[in-house]
Design a protein that fits this description.
10 helices; mainly alpha; 199 residues
Length: 199
């Protein structure tokens, strides 16, 4: 990653952190882009280089490209749902510890703001596309079976994240995700993950 990319990542993280704090303190609708930019210490233009809109601060993340690559790196001998399951648990292990509160606040906003809730379908579609691409050899188009598996896995993942949010983060997200993928794979419900084996 070059200096320009690192600067953009720092700005993006600062903008999102400030925005989520302001949304919690004074409400989503009452918070303006200008206020977010000012408190994050960036210009109005820099805000829009990081996020195309205020809504994108809540909606956008870099998880789908990561999941696509993790799925692609799994052995092709694994069943498609297993590949997505294992890749998702690996990806969660990479982000959950340091991004847990951000993910929780973003999900709570997504579910509580009508204008954002109406766009949950976009997040599902984005995850589904990432899963399709990860399962499909490069240069090929996903078949109907792959599209069906990807759609089911995206819905299961969304179900787990929403259920976690509904508990206010009291439930354990890795356990919920593990449970929904076990259900999709027709496996018995797993034992809760211990800290030693948590992703």
């Amino acid at each position: 990653m070059n200096d320009k990319a690192r600067t953009r990542e720092r700005n993006r993280a600062a903008v999102q952190e400030v925005a989520l704090r302001l949304f919690a303190e004074q409400g989503y609708e009452a918070t303006t882009v200008a206020q977010i930019a000012r408190e994050a210490g960036v210009s109005h233009m820099t805000f829009f280089r990081c996020f195309p809109s205020k809504e994108a601060v809540v909606l956008d993340d870099d998880y789908d490209p990561m999941l696509e690559e993790l799925i692609r790196s799994r052995p092709v001998t694994e069943e498609p749902v297993e590949r997505i399951h294992r890749a998702t648990m690996t990806g969660l292990g990479q982000v959950y510890e340091h991004a847990r509160e951000t993910l929780l606040r973003r999900t709570e906003l997504l579910l509580s703001i009508p204008g954002l809730r109406a766009r949950i379908g976009e997040n599902l579609a984005s995850a589904r596309t990432a899963f399709e691409r990860g399962l499909t050899p490069e240069g090929e188009e996903p078949g109907v079976e792959t599209r069906a598996v990807a759609a089911a896995c995206a819905a299961a993942l969304s179900t787990a994240v929403i259920a976690w949010s509904e508990t206010g983060g009291e439930a354990d997200l890795p356990d919920l995700i593990d449970r929904v993928f076990h259900a999709l794979r027709g496996l018995p419900a797993p034992e809760p993950l211990s800290p030693e084996v948590r992703p």
